Amino acid sequence: MSESEQPASTSERRRRRYPSDVTNHEWAIISPLLAQAPGPGRKRTVDLRAIINAIFYLNRTGVQWRYLPHGFPFWSHVYYYFRKWARDGTWRRINGLLREKVRLGASKLAEPSAAIIDSQSVKTTEAGGPDGYDAGKQVTGRKRHIVVDTLGLLLIVVVHIASIQDPAGAKLVLTPLIGRFSRLKLIWADGIYQGPLVDWVKSKLDCVLEIVRRAAGERGFRVLPKRWIVERTFAWFNRYRRLSKDYEADPRMSEGMVYLASIRLMLRRLDRQKRRVCAG
Fold first, then answer.
1. For the residues 218-242, what does the mean pLDDT come to?
2. Do residues 248 and 258 make contact, with C-beta atoms less than 8 angstroms apart?
3. What is the DSSP letter of 143?
4. Is residue 124 located within the same domain as residue 213?
């Protein structure tokens, strides 16, 4: 039995392994990041690896919380941890730590010096919550505004109503980056971000917002320099069925689902890096 097939707990042996489950190496990476803080209080008794596997299963397959297979912990326990970690920023923090590991493994510095920004409009469902109408995309729902590095790894995501125009939405996603990345000096963007936002980015982030434009009169599809990187990231996220629409009532939970997809992708990449090292 290979390392990736070996279960780590009694509860995990009660069911067959799903492709979304973490391997032993992946669990060794993420488990310290989820460890309970020392001090007074009730100690966890739940199988945390089973909780993580259930959350990744839901994120990848799009199943509803109450429809989680019986081999996982009870759905309300799983949802409790997902919601708790979405609210307290745990998913965002883990995403940042894993991104640094992946970048270092790719022979890059931990912090990026350049990034790309873009948005994706998605429909909402009967779950409720804030939404709006994006007249450009003709979508009623929300926008996922993301910033990625040159490897396509997620720096930050902000989910807001779709009626907010991209330049205004860009301020929502870029404001949390102020003071966070000292090396960040260049951000590539679509033509819709041109205008006053360029000066705002320069004054607030001390960065150059470079607009990547099509050639005058050009028609049809063409891969645009740098912008294809963020489009590829959205394509990666599209593999995760929970992201096919925005199924969450709370935009913070929506952001958590995006971070989950990013975390899963980076864990896979780190696992492959480990295997290549072992094979070599």
1. 84
2. no
3. E
4. yes
Task: Name, in order, each residue with C-beta under 8 angstroms of 272's C-beta and a sequence gap of 6 or more.
Answer: none
pLDDT exceeds cutoff 90 at 273: no
Q: What are phi and psi of 248, to 5 degrees?
A: -100, 145
Furthest-apart CA atoms within the chain: distance in Å: 66
Average pLDDT over residues 41-67: 93
SS3 177: helix
- 137 and 50 in one domain? no
Residue with tokens 């804030």: 130
Q: How high is the pLDDT of residue 15?
A: 65
How far is it, in rounded angstroms, from Cα 71 to Cα 52?
13
Considering the domain architecture, whether residues 173 and 76 belong to the same structural domain is answered as: no
Residues 230-239 have a mean pLDDT of 96
Structural domain span for residue 184: 112-247
| Domain count across the chain | 2
Token pair listed for 201: 């980015």
Give pTM, 2 decimals.
0.90
Distance of CA 19 to the CA centre of its chain: 19
